[in-house]
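--- STAGE predict ---
source: upstream dedup step, 1 unique chain passed
mode: sequence only
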Amino acid sequence: MQTENRYSRQLRRYAFALRLIQHNARTQTILAWSGLSTYRVRTLYRADGPDQGDPGRRRPRGRPPYQLQFFWRSAKRADEAAVLGGIARLLNVIPEHPVQKGSEVARSLQQGERVCVAYELWHAFIPDSEISIDHAFLLVTALARGDEVRLGHCLDCKALILVDCLRPAGQMCESCETCKRRHSLAHKAPEAKKHYP
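--- STAGE serialize ---
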């Protein structure tokens, strides 16, 4: 019985690693979340990987992404990340309350599979995003910790947004921020005309 459980768990690890290869995940991401050795992952990739990945994209190499600033480099990316975070939250991939301060988010096979399900569901709706599976793991881990980023709502329109915990409170979505800037510029323009005829 115990041997059978160990065998089925090892098969799950291989299936999960293949799933990550199909999403063009970096080797370090596959190693960290599947629990397989470097040798096993490379063997698996050589055996099945070249035909498995997305044919339009090369599998990235090097260190997985680690900076959350990536998600705020464009309004579109921030919105897409908020949707991914929302799906992960609905599927209970992200706990309702952040994990204890100072404790690390557990990387387990089961958690990795759940992140994959959330990413695949999200990717079905937003297939052309720059957010990779590696970024999904980064985002979900950071949201679970809750010390740098969390899910919140725009102060104005109440849309789901990523909230940067290091910025002051009262954050808005990019669309509302743009409207607010335009509105304040429109009010400043007549005043400027009064002073400079």
